[in-house]
Amino acid sequence: MFRKHYSDAELLAWRDGELASWSRGSVEKHLQECWGCRSRLDQLEEQVRLVTEAFAQAVPGDPEWVGQARGRFRQWQEGFERDVHISALRAAPLARLSWRHALALFALGTAIAGMSVQGIRWIQTRNMPGVPLRANIVSTKPVIEPSAPPSRPVPEPGSTSPAAVLPGPALPWPDEAELAAREINVWYALHQHNACLGEQIEVLRAASGQWAVRGVVDGEGRLAELRGALNSLPYVKADLRSVSHEAAAEPSGVREQVEVQSAALPLQEELLRHFRTHAPEENAGVAVSTLANRTVSESEACLVEAWALRKLMERFPEERMTGLRSAARLLLENMLRDHASSLAGHAESLHTAVKPLAAAAGISAVEEPGVAMDLFTAVGRMDQLARGLFLGGPLTEPPTKAVREFLGAVARLRHEAQKFDTHLARERP
Amino acid sequence: MTREQAGQIIDELFGSWGPALLRCALRRLESRPAAEDVVQEAFMALYRELRRGTLIQNPKAWTMGVVRRQCARHIRELARHGEEAVPIETLEMWGGTDDALEPARSFVEQIAGLAAGLSGREEEVLLLRLQSLKYREIASQLGISPKSVATHLARALRKLENARKGQAPGRPLMGEEGHVPKTLQ
């Protein structure tokens, strides 16, 4: 059911951050849906701006009056300090106590003292010999700090920013848009250093609007690189460690080239025969090994790109993207597009690489799996079969059927990746 | 609190808050000397309390309360003696009737007229909110609930908005005879 419109008072209270937390959300939601309340809020903000400006302007004659009033006050102050004894002034509140107050205090004291022996002891210990009880009371009286009174910064006469008008209470906690923007900045810093591609790094929300980046990276060089990238963000606590073994020399972003023993391939004979027939000048063993290496590394590349894409899409689903600031949204879209186009590229080159496999297995037409298989399922299945076929991993089906399914998954992946890339490019050019 | 500390607070308050308090008193008393006396008395009372060591959370709201009570007392005394408040001489109250003050006329009248249609409570809430006080602080000082603060504030803004829209551009808010226009009432 559509809620009634909010009153001016409620809108103002919301704008000033004075609404209770439980009703704040419903006002925000309503404002997103209701054009009338939104435009009324705009009018109110404009009115607040005008009123603030009007009241902040110096009226001719004010400075003169302030000067005269200060002068009069100083004259009075001299007389006051000369005539009135401040110690008498301090005792005045106690002296002003009426007999009713005194009686009430006495009754209260008696009641407390009569409650228990501990009570009497407590009063005795408080009232130390030589120090009267009244002195304790007077000395614990709070004293106002000499700091300047809070004063409102006078806005510039020409300023038009509504945010600069009635300065609302300082937010003790960054709002949701700010938090999301910070998170995207962290992801983008990692993205620029390819740390989102399969490395064991996670971004977690920490206290006070901070973000913690945890993980294990390869080598001290990589560690320093990532720490340097994250240090520029003041709200990030980088909790990264390095694995102290041979991977220190491995440059970032370069995927491992997996060495494959061609002797273990399920379709080795068919592939060797194919290469001997079609490329007799090449060493058939080397050609098979190259095919296997390329297939496995492209398949892994597809997998990490797809995972990076999926992670971003899960962190920032469509409903969260609508509330993002434009700068943060731009960064996020850049990252999404990078991964999508990279995935499409890897899928394309994988598709080219596995063509000899289809010929060797005698498969003329590749059947794509049904539409129920989405991009991420296709990647997962394809990588699983690639490991089975070229890395000696477990295979549940006979090799010919596995190859057929693998080729189908590759075709599906290529198709879906291209579709996704085009969709992103069209929707967010 | 020492004499210097209290004096410094009062000095700063005179500059940042004195003129607003003075206008507030003027609209209630309609007499420049009386309004000046009331504001001066409020600052003196604040100084006395500060010297005494009283904890005053928000001196602006506190002085506003003193001004409100003093104005009410002043009006009661006038009524008791059968006297009427003297109407404001708009330009006289800002220090003269010279031609040099002419450009300031409409602006001064606007300021004087700005809050003229507001009730006392609405004006107090608006002035205190313009001093960046939170609703809770205003509410505790005026003895009302934070929700009422929001209501008064919204009503004040609505009245000022109506007054602004009901006027031709460039025309002062206050009418030619010094009366409040219909839209402000």
Q: What secondary-structure arrangement, pairings included, does this model have?
A:
The complex is a heterodimer of chains A (429) and B (185).
Chain A: H1 8-15, H2 21-33, H3 35-56, H4 62-83, H5 86-95, H6 99-115, H7 117-126, H8 133-139, H9 176-192, E1 200-205, E2 211-218, H10 219-231, E3 236-243, H11 268-278, H12 284-315, H13 318-321, H14 326-353, H15 355-360, H16 375-390, H17 399-427
Parallel strand pairs in A: 2-3
Antiparallel strand pairs in A: 1-2
Helix pairs in contact in A: 1-3, 6-7, 9-14, 11-12, 12-14, 12-16, 14-17, 16-17
Chain B: H1 3-29, H2 32-52, H3 59-80, H4 90-93, H5 102-114, H6 120-130, H7 135-142, H8 146-165
Keywords, separated by commas or semicolons:
heterodimer; A: 429 residues; mainly alpha; 3-stranded mixed β-sheet; 17 helices; 3 strands; elongated; B: 185 residues; disordered C terminus
Please, could you describe this protein's structure?
The complex is a heterodimer of chains A (429) and B (185). Chain A is mostly helical. In chain A, 62% of the residues lie in helices and 5% in strands. Chain A has 17 helices and 3 strands. Chain A has a 3-stranded mixed beta sheet with strand order 1-2-3, covered by helices on one side. In chain A, strand 2 (211-218), helix 10 (219-231) and strand 3 form a beta-alpha-beta unit. Chain A starts with 7 loop residues before the first helix and ends with a helix. The model of chain A is unreliable at 130-172 (pLDDT under 50). Chain B is mainly α. In chain B, 68% of the residues lie in helices and 0% in strands. Chain B has helices at 3-29, 32-52, 59-80, 90-93, 102-114, 120-130, 135-142, 146-165. Chain B starts with a helix and ends in a 20-residue tail after the last helix. The chains are: A mainly alpha (429), B mainly alpha (185).
